[in-house]
Amino acid sequence: MPRIPYPDLDALPPKLKDFMSRVDNNVNVFRMLPWAETATEHWHRLGNALLQKSALDPVLREMAIVRVGHLCRAGYEVYQHERISARVGMPAEKIEALKDGAESPVFDDLEKLVLRFTDEVVRNVKASDETFRALNEHLSNREMAELVLTIGYYQMTCAFLENFEIPIEEPGLLEDPFRKVER
What we know:
With 183 residues, the protein is mainly α. The protein has helices spanning 14-20, 28-32, 40-52, 58-71, 75-87, 92-97, 109-124, 129-136, 141-163. The model is unreliable at 177-183 (pLDDT under 50).
């Protein structure tokens, strides 16, 4: 049960009500977002850009997202993105090892760098010069920028989820909770 009730979708301003009619309202985080009336559409757009239109490899992206979820102790985030990780082809042993981070032997060198970078950004805001340079040898400047934005976006999302204690949806309720949403 969340800390505050979900907003009444029928009572939303017309533009937001129209937008929310095109969003899967079975997704609990989506249901809570309209309390932030002016940010809701933009949150969805940024998430869509990072999930659907990024140059960053989807497996590396999901590794960073799930790791952020573990570091923020956000069970909802971890649950949803472990599912997405499997869908983009991440092996189960790597999904499981994300809770331990870069030290796990199941990760290759690039994956370890992404996880080390993610840990440093979450814990310190700024990654060390050593980690940044090492990762930038493998990722383009665009991919680096998208990785930083992805880490930050999911830290923000984890804070939202945890502060409002948004519960995971009932099993079987959702087919694809992060389907492409374009506006």
